[in-house]
Amino acid sequence: MPYNLLLAISAAYVVFLFAVAFWADKRAAAGKLGWLRSPLIYTLSLSIYCTAWTFYGAVGYAARSGLEFVTIYLGPTLVMIGWWVFLRRLVRIGRAQRVTSIADFISSRYGKSNALGILVTLLAVVGTTPYIALQLQSVTLSFDVFSHSGASGGGENLSQTAFFVAAGLALFTIIFGTRNLDVNERHHGVVTAIAVEAVVKLLALLAVGVFVVFWVGGGAGATFEAIEASPISEWEMRAERWGTLIFLSAAAFICLPRMFQVLVVENDDERHLTTASWAFPLYLFLMSLFVVPIAVVGLSVLPEGSNPDLFVLTIPLAFDQGTLAMFAFLGGFSSATSMVIVAAIAVSTMVSNHIVMPIWLNARQGGATVSGDVRNIVLLSRRVSIAAILGLGYLYYQLSGGGAALAAIGLISFTGMAQVLPALVGGIFWRGATRIGAAAGLSIGFALWLWTSFLPSFGPGVLSENTLASGPFGIWLLRPQALFGIEGIDPLVHAVFWSLLLNTAAFILFSLLSFPRPMERLQGATFVNVFRYSQATRGWSGGAAEAEDLLMMSQRIIGPNEAQGLFEAEAAKQGKVGYLPDVTPEFLEKLERELTGSVGAATAHAMLAQIAGGASVSVEDLMRVADETQQILEYSTQLEEKSQELERTAGKLQEANAKLVALSVQKDSFLSQISHELRTPMTSIRSFSEILMADKEMSVADRTRYCQIIHDEAIRLSRLLDDLLDLSVLESGQVTLNLNHQTLTDVLDRSVAATELPRDARLFVVERDPSKENIALYTDGDRLTQVFINLIANAQKYCEAEAPVLRISVGQEGTRTYVDFADNGTGIPAETQALLFEKFSRGTDARAAGGAGLGLAICREIMNRLGGSVVYVPGESGALFRVFLPEHASMAAQ
Amino acid sequence: MRPTQPIFLERESYRRRRLADAAKLSPVLGAVLFLMPVLWAGAGSTAGGLVYLFGAWALMILVMKLLSRHLSDAEPKTDESVPEGDDAV
Prior knowledge:
The complex is a heterodimer.
Chain A: H1 3-29, H2 39-45, H3 52-55, H4 57-65, H5 71-81, H6 87-96, H7 102-109, H8 114-147, H9 155-177, H10 188-216, H11 220-229, H12 239-255, H13 257-265, H14 272-289, H15 291-301, H16 311-318, H17 322-363, H18 374-400, H19 409-418, H20 421-429, H21 435-454, H22 465-470, E1 478-479, E2 482-483, H23 491-513, H24 518-528, H25 547-558, H26 560-573, H27 585-599, H28 601-611, H29 617-694, H30 700-732, E3 740-743, H31 744-754, E4 765-768, H32 770-773, E5 776-779, H33 781-798, E6 805-813, E7 816-823, H34 830-833, H35 846-849, H36 855-866, E8 869-872, E9 880-884, H37 887-893
Parallel strand pairs in A: 4-6
Antiparallel strand pairs in A: 1-2, 3-5, 6-7, 7-9, 8-9
Helix pairs in contact in A: 1-10, 2-10, 2-14, 4-15, 5-12, 5-14, 7-8, 8-9, 8-17, 8-18, 8-19, 8-21, 9-17, 9-18, 10-14, 10-15, 10-17, 11-15, 12-13, 12-19, 12-23, 13-17, 15-16, 16-17, 17-18, 17-28, 18-25, 19-21, 19-23, 21-23, 25-26, 27-28, 29-30, 30-36, 31-33, 33-36
Chain B: H1 11-35, H2 46-74
Helix pairs in contact in B: 1-2
């Protein structure tokens, strides 16, 4: 087959793959995914497990080690068969947490620790690079097989091919792998192209197998006999290798970055696992079915010394089946390219999310809110990472010289990634697994893998014979392939056993000894109990974060339209119009998950933390707990206040009731009093008038005296009735005030004059301070006089002092002017003070005073009408009544 | 919540639980089958081993196919309501 035709067909195939990927991406963008997200596509995408190492290498492996090759496929089969136990959990967690890669998974599980993310990323880069080199090698070798016939061939040509393949793959991956920064981190175009490649490689291998068995080998029976007779049958199973390889391939199936990518990250629907649980084992079954026959036939028909790794190509070529060979070539090409593409996407996501972005964020303090498009930075860093990883792979291929060292790299790479297994499985099933434990396990596993497996694979150039034989610096116990002095173990089993044993031991020990941070505990609970509550941890409490800042940041990461849509939808859900929802904890969690899909858990958390105030969950949770306590406290305080208020009200009611009772008693006593008061003058009037009527011969003097008495009593009666009338008029508000200009001096003069006692009465001194009394008033002078008279008369009546003195003084309280009437008596007892101004109330010794108990009530009513007030000021030595003059009245006068 | 849960499940839920049990145990069966060749390490024939392994493999695929059909029927209502590991019988 001409080399140029091969190139043309390869190019056409690549163009076809581009077209498929482009078409699928377009359909996905239009939302018309249809069967593109069927379980079949999912199952086929898992086939990137079968790389060129499988396609070509399995036959070589079988030629060298018989049935052992099959362990590499039995391990993944067991994982798929056990999907209910493990993968179902893994996928559910991955979807719930928007995990973007295995590094992100580990980082997220252990409290969003970026240090762990970096560790796993490093492991992935170191483990994946040689694997990519291996794929480049297989493609160039297969080109070489064809070119042997026609073109010049040679080293430079091979190297060129490798370079072009690497560059082409980088281009494809960058175009379809970083097309968008999807919140789900799913690449429909890439996955569909891979599914197509999966079909191509399966059909190619089956075609070669059918050709070998039924064309060359002469049927199933004949092939069976050929197998028995072939040198492969001399292979003897080594039990420890058999078990170790099954375990190792199972571990790698879960932990390899590219497998995690298709298994978990690209998973559209959990239910696809149900189909994949039998369909993927079937795929592996079919891929392995013809491996041994091809190896057997190749060993028998091809010349001694031909490379068994290329039997899949060389057998058809030997039988001049150019088309079949071409098909096989495309199958191998598909195997290599699909693996490289997915691995590059997976690892570049890790590198970008866990190494580049944190550094970039750290470098620019102020972080995500500063100007600059984070989204472009993320995409750029992904693209650069992809190019860098493929570049590294190419470099590795060049440096290693494409020799036999590469063939062994597959299992070495597996062992490296399997170091993640303890932290992964422990993180899913054991809540007690901590960040410290995971870091310790990973570090020890990583170091041991480098020492016992990775470095020795480079041959004497890196680890000298001397080191291998007697350990570093002669430390016998640390020999790379006989740790602790235990010799004679198969190097692979040795490496797997010690690295994973000590890894797991350190993981468990340090987990037991350390204490997790709150975030780790929350994440641990969420991961382990994923089926109980499939929701992300409560990590945020609102407040500090501003919706606008968040929108600004989100736009930079997931794009303006997506971010605005997200915010608008959330705002609508909250019943608001516009783009800015309330920053609730739920919203922050949701946003963090969305951002996690683009930049990884640790970075998203860090970015939100910068805006949301940097508070970690520990403080937040404590705050929430404290808030609740605070609310309860507040509530009980409120209750207490309410009950106090109630108590006060009840007290007031009791007071009022007591007042009412007292009043009613007073009223009763007043009624008896008033009837007495009325009857006394009535009785005198009646009896004296009867005397006047009966005694016709009364002296004129007597008659005059009796008439005088009747007259006086009548006046007393009418005064009493006047008072009652006056009070009722005042109370009903029907009084008309006669306002005019007065001075306080005049009013007081009149009042004092009106109360002048006859000379023979006991001495009653009124003290005044005329200098202060000169205050102009605009009020009803007569009414005010009435009040003053009442107060002065009261003092005269009730003051029991030997030498009664009434001091009338004028004072100022704030803007209000008052007049005090203070006597030097014993004052008014506390129990009567409350009722002092009530109607019908009177002093204790009512009889002595002889009043009807209406005076003060009238005073109060008058003062209320005038706009002032009169109060009793307790706590003085004697009785002190204070009359507040109407404010406007005194003000107007000034 | 324990006392409010019935001790015995209805026939349908019981079937579903046992299917889940089967799904959980099938990797054990697979592991046993796939590790069986260790027993005749060095003694058996390669071709015979090949036939045995592919036979076992095909058997497991068949078992998973059957299980997956019933599990996917039961999927919407599977153990979401009851925490894993607390299965009633």
